[in-house]
Write a structure and sequence with these properties.
3 helices; mainly alpha
Length: 104
């Protein structure tokens, strides 16, 4: 009876340990993917800022409309980058009042 229980316990422990290792691997993969996403988003925000600056030198109404459309989106992109980096890569909790940007 004791041997059966010991075998069950060893099997359970081995499965639990393997599951924890798999979860740790998945978490590391997710961090890597988020890092790539953050890097890509940072590049996009920088490019949008450059385009916005360039367009401001033009006085055409179309350029002004484009700038007016893009400018409000830049802080949102920057907030998403900050929250993703804090929450996913650094493991910090995001305050509830700031969670509205998480759905972007």
């Amino acid at each position: 009876m004791c041997v059966k229980w010991l075998k069950r316990f060893i099997g359970w422990y081995a499965r639990a340990e393997a599951g924890e290792q798999q979860q740790a691997q998945l978490a590391e993969q997710q961090k890597g993917l988020y890092q790539q996403l953050i890097t890509t988003t940072e590049q996009m925000v920088r490019q949008a800022q450059q385009v916005t600056t360039c367009l401001l030198h033009h006085t055409q109404k179309q350029a002004e409309r484009l700038v007016a459309h893009v400018e409000p989106l830049l802080p949102l992109g920057q907030r998403v980058i900050f929250q993703a980096r804090s929450r996913v890569l650094q493991g910090k909790q995001v305050a509830e009042s700031r969670q509205s940007a998480q759905s972007l």
